[in-house]
TrEMBL record:
Source organism per UniProt: Flavobacterium cucumis
Chain ranges of the Thioredoxin domain: 333-466
Taxonomic placement: Bacteria, Pseudomonadati, Bacteroidota, Flavobacteriia, Flavobacteriales
Coiled-coil annotated residue ranges, if any: none
Protein name in UniProt: AhpC/TSA family protein
Signal peptide per UniProt: none
Length: 466
């Protein structure tokens, strides 16, 4: 993280901050008044959404200077998120904290800087998050290594970040509630890699190394509180549980190495039901399993069996309705159905209809948030286009601002295909069920769906084009 990225704040902004967050201010001991405000450089929306556990607490509008400020008469201490489409980050409030954030949407995560009462904790969380993200970029090659080399590598990486965590904890002196969040960010990143390794290694090298793992390899599981509601929607926890369930299901169903199969996902539901006693936490985990599965296995008979098991275990009617909507959207993308229209624009900001063409088309998706996929998907598309010129290949950018999209077109010289941008990510997510960037949709010349759920890296993909 670049700590000096926004070192200097305008005079008026500082004046607001000082009036709210001066260390000399006496905070009432019997109220939970808190302030949240800031400044958005290059805003992509007119507001910031403030959320708790994926539920909107308030929508805070920007003024003419792209600043915002909001007083909460009573804000419970804890972890919140703030979202400025299409990105979000976490913010932690202790009692009576008054926080200002400044960021640039052109480099969202790297530019986030907090000021005010409670800023040190939040700047630490951001710095640790960025360290973890940098580590993610390096971790995939480590999955090819043997067990000893892998463990040595991840333990060394963990030790460096733990030293950073302990140093900041001593300097800032935060309380136990915040420490749960801080330690979770540190530890879950580490043990997530341990859970991924056995099946990632086998997938990448063909070698099953499970019998070579040390006896205490999974000892970390004993220290995970699977029933802690505070962590229910915290992304490091959500990601860990997801990969752990993958690992356990593949271990239980040794003959079925497809993590997206019906049997493995039914196993994930059953393990979640046994492992997690807290109903709220369990419902969220079940929902995540359901979302992941419905977007992968498009066998309609399997989907029905899976939904029946999910509904038998879930007790959250709101979440069940959301899953049913996804299920219905998947049904609408069956072979032979007309592909629903989505608002898309071209480089000249002109509206484009996918159906307005005379040739069959291959629609693939990309985002600047996944650079490796951006490059690999365009490379694959070029290979297939050379072999099947009777198809139009259409690249659709999602989950980026228009500015980022156009910058990426220049940076990567993306001019070989029809390049379009989705201006409403929620619409494309719901109508085309695009939640994983590797999806490819193939449509016939008449706009009907030939295959709504495939990807370039499927060994049988080319059969769709013949």
């Amino acid at each position: 993280m670049t700590q000096n990225y926004f070192k200097y704040i305008t005079l008026s902004f500082s004046a607001i901050l000082l009036s709210l967050t001066s260390c000399k201010r006496d905070f009432a001991s019997d109220d939970y008044v808190a302030y949240f405000g800031g400044e958005i450089i290059n805003p992509q929306d007119k507001y910031v959404i403030f959320m708790k556990d994926n539920e909107v607490v308030d929508t805070i509008f920007l003024d003419k200077q792209n600043r915002f400020i909001h007083k909460f008469d009573s804000l419970a201490p804890g972890l919140y998120t703030f979202k400025h489409h299409p990105e979000y980050q976490y913010v932690y409030f202790d009692k009576n904290d008054s926080l200002m954030v400044r960021l640039n949407t052109f480099d969202f995560d790297n530019s986030v800087v907090f000021c005010g009462r409670g800023d040190e904790k939040n700047n630490f969380l951001m710095e640790l998050y960025l360290k973890n993200e940098s580590d993610k970029e390096l971790m995939y090659d480590t999955f090819d290594r043997n067990v000893k080399q892998f463990i040595k590598n991840i333990d060394s990486s963990y030790a460096i970040r733990k030293s950073f965590y302990l140093k900041k904890k001593a300097e800032i002196g935060w309380g136990e509630d915040f420490d749960l969040i801080a330690k979770s960010s540190l530890d879950f990143h580490h043990i997530t890699k341990k859970e991924i390794y056995p099946y990632a290694h086998q997938f990448r090298t063909g070698e099953n190394i499970r019998k070579s793992l040390p006896e205490d390899y999974y000892s970390h599981r004993k220290n995970v509180d699977f029933n802690n509601e505070v962590l229910t929607t915290y992304s490091p926890y959500v990601r860990y549980v997801s990969v752990m369930l993958n690992n356990l299901s593949l271990q239980n169903n040794r003959k079925d190495l497809n993590e997206n199969s019906l049997d493995n996902n039914i196993t994930k539901l059953n393990i979640s039901d046994t492992l997690i006693k807290n109903q709220r936490v369990k419902n969220n985990v079940l929902k995540n399993v359901a979302l992941m599965y419905l977007l992968e296995d498009q066998n309609m008979y399997n989907n029905q069996k899976f939904i029946e098991r999910y509904l038998a275990l879930s007790t959250d009617e709101k979440q069940e309705q959301e899953i049913k909507e996804i299920y219905n959207a998947v049904q609408n993308l069956k072979i032979g159905n007309i592909l629903p229209e989505i608002k898309l624009i071209d480089k000249n900001n002109q509206n484009v209809l996918v159906s307005d063409r005379k040739k069959p088309a291959v629609l693939f998706f990309w985002t600047t948030l996944a650079e490796s996929h951006l490059l690999s998907s365009h490379k694959k598309a070029a290979e297939f286009k050379a072999k099947y010129p009777n198809y139009d290949f259409i690249a659709i950018n999602v989950n980026d601002t228009e500015y980022k999209w156009k910058e990426a077109l220049k940076k990567y010289n993306l001019n070989q295909f029809t390049e379009l941008h989705s201006t409403d990510f929620e619409s494309i997510r719901k109508k085309w069920v695009i939640t994983k960037i590797h999806r490819v949709i193939i449509v016939n010349a008449d706009g009907t769906i030939k295959n709504g759920f495939t990807n370039f890296f499927d060994v049988n993909f080319e059969e769709n084009l013949k």
